[in-house]
Amino acid sequence: MNPQFIQKMNLPFFFLTSFSCYQGALHGIPWLGLVIFALLVAFFLPYTHLKKERLLITLLVAGIGFIADTTLIMLDVYTVKESARWLIPAPLCPEWILVLWLNFGFMLYIFWGFLAKNKITPVIVGAVFSFLIFGNASRMELVSMQQHKLVSFLIIAICWAVLIPFFTNRAVRYFGGKNAVVK
What's the pLDDT score for residue 177? Predict the structure, then answer.
């Protein structure tokens, strides 16, 4: 297959996986996002030049994201609707949020070039997307902000404004320079 076509197809599948995480959790099938993510990996990984690095960054992002969200839940920044859980018990990060992290980590292979353009881009992207993702989950009543809603959103935004630049830096180390895939 044409490599540029494969690159372009990553974005719609990124959104499909994200959508399946929300919809699965909303409709009592919180494992749906995981199934779609597994299909995404099975389809796109064979076309990846740096397979090991792409999988490593995916696992790194998922691991740190899991710890970050578990910490936010334990600190009562937000809670997760019990019916939106599958195997992972409260107060740990639920599967569908973990899959959102896996999905982002897997797509860093595609997005790192954009995020690494300058030092402020990943900070802004992290803060903005935290509001979009948690705002969407809150409107769907998958999560509830426990403190004053704005305070909870700001805490999450600050967390993401630190994490996304860190993940971008790791992606540049894995994929940048002579290994560059996206410019």
Answer: 60
